[in-house]
Amino acid sequence: MATDNASPATTGYVQPAIDVRRLGAVLDGEYAGIRGLVRTNLARYASVLEEADDLGVDAFRERVREVVVEMAATGQTGMGFPEAYGGGGDVGASIAAFETLAFGDLSVLVKVGVQFGLFGGAILHLGTERHHEAYLPGLITGELMGCFAMTETGHGSNVQALGTVARYDAARQEFVITTQGDQARKDYIGNAARHAELAVVFARLEVDGRSEGVHAFVVPLRVAGEVAPGVRIEDDGRKMGLNGVDNGRIWFDGVRVPREALLNRFADVSPDGVYESSIANPDRRFFTMLGTLVQGRVSVAGAGIGVAKVALAVATKYAVRRRQFAASADAEEQVLLDYGLHQRRLLPLIARTYALHFAQDVVRSHLHEVFSGAEDDAPARRRLESRAAGLKALGTWHATRVVQECREACGGAGYLAVNRFAALKSDSDVFTTFEGDNHVLLQLVAKGLLTDHASEFEDLDQLGVVRYVTGLAVETVIERTSAHKLLERVRDLLPGGDEWDREAGLLDPEYQLAMLRFREEHMLAGVARRIKRGTDQKRAPGAVFSQVQDHVIALARAHVERLVAEAFVDKVRAMPEGGEREALALLCDLCALSTIEADRAWFMEHGRLTVQRSKAITREVNDLCRKVRPLAVDLVDAWGIPPEMLRAPELVGGDPEPTAPSPAASAR
After folding, report:
1. Which residues are catalytic, by number?
2. Which one of 127, 445, 620, 622 is CB 3.0 to 4.6 Å from 390, fit for a cystine?
């Protein structure tokens, strides 16, 4: 890494030469094969991008279904299912395939997610052998379409309060599924309006008049193509985007299903009506059940990162073609990416996308270890759930921000539907509320931090967190994160000790990580103190938590940003020497310092940045942008987005305007 703040032009700085194929191999990692298969399939079905605009809603829905079934025949969508039923037996590969599929039409992506991730995942992880044998072979091929009916009009995030009820009738050994009012109707359910034959329905189980909490049941929606008796389905209609997915509302009016319809991995009901479960605590049982569905959050996080890659690839390629203004009267107009402001707009976003990519690698590997049994214990699952929730939030917010910035960076051309941004914007916007609202997910992350992933973690709602933290020796938390100890950790990393104004060290990854760790731990101590203060004053736990929610969200974001930065640093350190490592080191510095810069007010308020050092960080970010600029096209090309998926003839079509070639391009 570089160690000064001067311009590359004045220091003899040598630009790293990178090989796009080698860097692409680093990004694809162990799943290069499945990613290659998905890219081939995307190119084969590139016409779907145009058909999304040209076809009516009904026709496009049918086209998306057709594409999904044909892709399933190649094996790309079934990688996460057991080989015994026709799958690939590799959960990590299934996530990698989904991440890559995000380069294409997002209705196809979401249809795949609903069918194989949500519906199929619920059958696989909540069911037992009888369900696997009955349903997995057909759903893996796409012959049997289904949906995941959890969300209700009146309840989304608060799943434990769902209004749909399943009462057990011991005399007939059946469950009776009933929608108790319009607020309890299942809503926004993908595949429901047109294609699903079955639904995994989440409902409150009642046995002999006693509520046993929310459980999942397999319920027929259609029989021989007609809506099943007792079921009512209504189309949600046109949406902001994703109109190739048939979202709908579902009501159940005393629908009877056999006792075997209960997905009974964690609980069952005997023929004579005795409820049985290996997990005695109902809250722990509920959160254990939901924890098996964490794959959806990991998938959506990866999809959001994929969307950001597409937007940045289009905007970057446009920025080296489009010219605007000249430096002097006799000079040629400059390409956009040679302007410092344009570099500032795009290049830190490229750096952050790389960082999120490597953080996603960590979560995907963790998911694979847990679900393959390599590391499947309660603490490992809690860490996975927390990390998946946090990365899903930051990854999808990043996608939304990137699409908007890139659209603006392409001016009026970016507003044309032919240039992909309209579809990216409308189709990906919902990612921030898929698999849980991002703010709710960050509260889950903070809950884990506050309870230090204790054994009580999965039993606590928001009020439980307040009570738990109050009962802790909070002084221990505060002492562990005390300001003087954190300050010592940061200062120990810097030659010169208290000399905070010194500019050397900004590009030391240990310094960068120490700053992010300080912020996180200081926020953790602050939230704990506020909760304890509120309860010491005898205020209601709900009021206490509500008043600290802004601090809770800030803590969770700081925690996840630290994890993302660590993942990037670890990746760079693990790479062999060479141009690719040097390029990633530049991006790693740019991501870390721009993250600190974005929250400079907090660091200055808490004494971690002087005015001089804050200005030095800004100078360094600008300098890093100048160093990254010649590599920009190679960096987005390394993502391996099929050219057909860029679909932006007004922006990236034809040859770029003449510009100084990057060293990487010259080397090839």
Report:
1. 435
2. 445
